[in-house]
Amino acid sequence: MGNHKQVAFFDYPALFSELKSEIMSAVQDVFARGAYIMQSDLLNFEKELAAYVGVKHVLGVADGTMGLLLPLLALDLKPGDEVIVPSHTFVASASAIHHAGGTPVLADCGKDHLIDPASIRQLLTKRTRGIMPVQLNGRTANMDAIGAIAQEHGLFIVEDSCQALGSKFKGQFAGTFGAAGSISFYPSKTLGCFGDGGAIITNDDALAEKLNMLRDHGRGPDGAVWAWGFNSRLDNVQAAILRIKLRHYDAYVARRRAIAAMYQERLGDLKALLLPPAPGSEAEHFDIFQNYEIEAERRDELRSYLESQGVRTIIQWGGRVIHQFSKLGFTAPLPYAEAMTKRFMLLPMNTALKNEDVEYICDCIRAFYG
């Protein structure tokens, strides 16, 4: 194909330019007030995000990983306690369990690339204390099946919903099915700030009180230190930026779903590809398409061809899922995740993409497969 376009995987400058005047106005206001740590911008953002997902409590924290670690600590995870987590996720999901004192036990995934409830059942032991479903790529797992397992065995659920703000299963938002859920505001997320940032969402009053102390050096409402805590507060400048972006969030999600529908329409007939479920194709799921993760035959050749045509793609986490990091000591066989790592990749998915960019990507993929 001649006349190559250049399609970035993620266009950070374009996403800043889109809201530049609003963002700079908000930031200048924070600077003018000298309001940097746990000021009104953070408190208002927490209230607005809580209203958006329909929960009682949102606590801004330093990043999505701390959004997982702090709830696990607040739930008094003990050494030897096992928490089941999918292997197909960023290592931070499992590392939060490790650093909270527990043992991560890795589960396999299904064709939707999310944790497989059947795999969870196979991994249950007397030491199992909780389940950490990862709501990956903007899709929420089958929380009916996972919730039934948790209830049957008296297990807590802490959701890694870092990639899934606004995603729903049967009308219920990701992050609201268990004791707590974590959201990430990493710059490439659907709601991204300009650095690291995260939040914990919960409906549990007592847990929220403990989390509020843990994120702020263990200090209680009287200012005295009640427990060993952390310095893990969402920066007030980032909160001001996130307030601006939250007002536009439904439009961001709608655009991502429109792009996903275009991919489905143009590529859905290619037998060499396994695409995510199309938006609206499953009544139980509302997906926000944080990423557009496909499985592709001749994956590496396809990526090289797309690169030659100016289309950037990536493979999440360098192409390895957690059980493949041998130095972490995992040995259990996970056949679907193992096979998937030879096929999975991400196509560009962000609101800076124009329709002609998506059409060009699809043209290139169809040309590759002949």
**Describe the biggest sheet?**
7 strands, mixed
Distance between the termini: 12 Å
Q: Count the E strands.
A: 13
Multimerization state: single chain
Please give the order of strands in the largest beta sheet: 1-9-8-5-4-2-3
CATH topology of the largest domain: Aspartate Aminotransferase, domain 2
* Broad shape: globular
- Helical amount: 25-40%
**What letter string, H or E per element, gives the SSE order?**
HHHEHEHEHEHEEEEEHHHEEEHHEH
Q: What is the highest CATH level, the class of the largest domain? A: Alpha Beta
Computed structural class: alpha/beta
Per DSSP, what share of the residues sits in E-state strands of 2 or more residues? 5-15%
CATH superfamily of the largest domain: Type I PLP-dependent aspartate aminotransferase-like (Major domain)
Question: What's the structural domain tally?
Answer: 2
